[in-house]
Specification:
98 residues; alpha+beta; five-stranded antiparallel sheet; 5 strands
């Protein structure tokens, strides 16, 4: 079970939602380049695995939902769980408003 698991419903269609998730992942990668070591997109572009020094995560897009699951690695990362979750929730709320 993931340390942080978020899901949002959307009505953007797969293509638009996928672009929004890619933008979100790229934004986090740009803001924390030393923490994010890789982002590997599936061939269909509807999911990605990301990982780094203190986390491993999965991002998924379907026709009507977007989900993010993060596993935090290490004591320091787990201590920052609420801050990381808050940041993700805020960004998902901006990119996928209810």
């Amino acid at each position: 079970m993931a340390d942080i698991s978020l899901q949002r419903k959307h009505s953007y269609g797969v293509e638009d939602a996928r672009a929004r998730v890619e933008k979100l992942v790229n934004k986090f990668k740009a803001s924390m380049p030393s923490m994010i070591e890789y982002v590997n997109w599936a061939p269909d572009g509807n999911s990605a695995e990301a990982g780094g020094k203190m986390f491993k995560g999965n991002f998924r897009v379907t026709a009507d939902t977007v989900s993010v699951d993060l596993d935090l690695i290490g004591f320091i990362a787990k201590m920052a769980k609420s801050k990381v979750q808050e940041k993700l929730e805020k960004q998902l709320g901006e990119d996928f408003p209810a």
